[in-house]
Specification:
homodimer; alpha+beta; 8 helices; DNA-binding
Chain lengths: 219, 219
DNA sequence: CCATTTTTTTAGATAAGTCTAAATTTAATG
DNA sequence: CATTAAATTTAGACTTATCTAAAAAAATGG
């Protein structure tokens, strides 16, 4: 069994590794789990002993197959709980992250299975992130950053890069929720800000480049 | 904020205090939380510093008002989660205890409120135990042990003393679930075992004294 | 009411996870 | 490529919650 702390490290490493199998640095992890680099080194030794990571001093780390499995299971639980909170308990999508950070550590395979059934075997969480299945497989849609979309193209919002409550709240206030179809009307060369219109509502919104590069869309 | 461990001690002390405000002994607590008495003494000092318990060396402990409040909140969460697991996720009543022991430590007042609403502001958990409200108040029904009921009386099963899965499973197998109306047909003097009949089903069951004194009933 | 048993507390250690400060390794740069 | 800067690890210490063994207090019972 793994402790809460170990699970959090594995999750952080998983996220830092991204798609590729690149090595993750001690400082990156320290930053992600909000602890001193020296503490991270200690934990890396421990996770290495447990065969959860590949670790060679000064060389960075990557997850082993078992490490990846654990990480994906935590992520699965996190996203299922987020969806539960939003769809069943009427939480807003910007409120659920911290609570899910607690719930993701509840140990019970049966509970996860039942929750999964209860929610109707969902494929995505309230932020548009895919929910891994029991085996760790998940849908990976081809998404683009809204900031990369050329003028006059119509796209659908399917996710966010930044998950902070304040950003999510800003999106809601601007009428930009998941699933919305939008058209890029005009991009300003100078600051790369965009004027976009929301389909079926004549409404148009002006968003900064900073915002646009945190919104994921599909064609 | 209190740690998981502190919460478990407070819950244990609350349960050991029972109705009265009697003092609870170190050994009783050690037994309840499954740790060595010496460890309990350490924790008692800590809880005393935090003004959660009244503690004088060698004299036993009792909860302060804040200690009781914390304990009741944990119990509230425990019972709400048990009910959630049974009514929403189709767990059996004998499966939920250990899982609720984990879930009861999730910190979020909002979550508790929402769960409470979601479950329809319930008054009792799946084992017939009352669920304290936000303020720590709960219904206390006048219940009796089935073992104390005289022959030919009709009573309703409203709870259990022993919460162990094996006992609960035995009850289910014998058709003795919460809410069932039963009549005590005959008590055997020798071993105090009972022959009882279940209303609306002609079925009669023979139960030992050990079983009868772990079933709570109302007249 | 004194001796023995039981209960409780103290003392000293251990393991997990963290820290700061110092040492070491790697990377970057003139 | 030698020196400085940055990243990483080691060393030593702290906190929380636990343990065992020994000491102290309370309870029991002839």
């Amino acid at each position: 069994m793994n402790s809460f702390t170990e699970e959090n490290y594995l999750k952080a490493i998983y996220k830092l590794m991204g798609q590729g199998d690149g090595k993750v640095s001690t400082n990156e992890i320290a930053d992600a789990v909000n602890t001193a680099p020296a503490s991270v080194t200690d934990m890396l030794k421990k996770l290495s002993d447990k065969k959860m990571i590949h670790y060679a001093k000064y060389k960075g780390v990557s997850l082993t197959v078992s490490g990846k499995k654990v990480a994906l299971n935590i992520i699965r639980k996190h996203r299922l709980w987020e969806l539960f909170l939003v769809t069943k308990l009427r939480f807003k999508w910007d409120e659920v992250h911290d609570l899910a950070e607690q719930l993701e550590h509840i140990q019970s395979e049966k509970l996860v299975q039942r929750l999964y059934q209860f929610l109707g075997k969902p494929k995505f969480d309230p932020h548009g992130d895919p929910i891994p299945d029991e085996k760790g497989n998940f849908f990976s849609q081809k998404t683009f950053l809204l900031s990369e979309i050329k003028d006059l193209h119509v796209v659908t919002i399917t996710g966010v890069v930044d998950h902070h409550p304040s950003f999510l709240q800003y999106l809601v206030k601007s009428g930009l929720s998941l699933g919305k179809k939008i058209k890029v009307r005009e991009t300003t060369d100078y600051d790369k800000s965009m004027n976009i219109s929301i389909s079926n509502s004549k409404v148009s919104v002006h968003i900064s480049y900073d915002v646009a590069k945190n919104i994921l869309v599909t064609l």
